[in-house]
Amino acid sequence: MEPRACQVKAQLRPLGRPVISTLSNYALRYTRRASKLSYKYTARGCIFTLFVVNVLLYAVTVISTEILVITFYLGYHLCQRVEHSTDAERKQLKILKSEETSLLKQVIRVMGIDFAPAATPLTRRLQTLAAALCSFSFLFAGIFFTVLAIILSFSNLYWIVILYTGWYVYDFRTHEKGGHRVHWYRRWKLWTKMAEYFPICLIKTAGLPADRNYIMGYHPHGIMAAGSFINFGTEGTGFAKLFPGIAPHLMTLTLNFMFPFYRDLLLGLGIVSVCRDSLDWILKNKGVGNAAIIVVGGAQEALDAHRNADIALTLTSRKGFIKIALQNGADLVPVFSFGENNVYAQAANPPGSKLRDIQPPCVPWPRASTIQLRIRPISNANHHSGWCPNSCYSSVETDPATD
Questions:
Q1: What is the pLDDT of residues 261-277, one digit of tens each?
Q2: Residue 115 belongs to a domain
Q3: Are residues 139 and 104 in the same domain?
Q4: CB-CB contact of 223 with 343 (8 Å)
Q5: Are 204 and 311 members of one domain?
Q6: InterPro entries of this UniProt entry (predicted)?
Q7: What is the pTM of this model?
Q8: What is the DSSP string of 306-349?
Q9: How far apart, in Å, are the Cα atoms of 278 and each of 39, 254, 332?
Q10: Domain shared by 99 and 138, yes or no
């Protein structure tokens, strides 16, 4: 008589054959079907597969990051509880100060993670979320909408891309003609929450009559010019109430208006391209009561934006807007943003360093020139690094207009 183990093996052996045979048949059948597919469906399948793989990789990354965040979060608060608990509580919970807890705190500090308190109010959480959404949109929204348009082109919703392509061609030069200002869009609560996150305030030092046009020179650029966007690209700080009758037109690189869908989000805020044709159009063809806001230093000035350091402005070769103001009879209004360079931290890049040598070629592509930013999670309360902006007081002051 065979041992029991041999009987079990004999019973399992025939069960494996049908399973393998079934899987091989399915694989062969799928291969035959794939070979008969047209190029159209094959391309759809490839793009869909790449999309699914990217989503899965992103999900795995997010889940892994959250697991690490939760682990360090619990460890950090455990250390805090041990540090502030009495001897009786430690004995009751069987928790004593040890080398392990001290080591955990050191590891947390070394990794640069300083978690926000667990009792942080919901309002503060919403402000942080608003700031993070705006920052990630600045970095990745253009690429995201471009990839989305490609995916829609190979789906049953391809007609959306066809219709939008017609609109894109028809509306191609609008960023040089004042944009499509949508007032309710500029008054979103999202912008107010982002302004409260820093907080940002707009200080009015003199009134601007609505019967003239203005060119505002904004300094300094910082990493992403967050102050200029909130104060002049939105109603987050109440520009319309401080300067009634003045329509602000924040100016940015023309490259930002090449991305599908993303360009419409910018145009809806009244943001236009920073070029001579656009500036002339605002000052000549839109009547009076217009203000063009130019971040004079541009992306070149962003390379010199360091926290708690002397502010270096790039002005020597940036005088073209002054000539345009004289030609159109517009007043110049200097605008200075206190705390703009403290919003983000970037790695040390003194002139002559290897990092500084590779950054100038990336200046025409502002998103590429921000590779020196240090990454941190949104829940990190450390105000020294990361994509999420640092919560620091920022004020923008407008000086009296000058002829």
A1: 999 999 999 999 998 99
A2: no
A3: no
A4: yes
A5: yes
A6: DAGAT
A7: 0.68
A8: -TTS------TT--HHHHHHHHHTPEEEEEEEETGGGSS-B---
A9: 43, 10, 17
A10: no
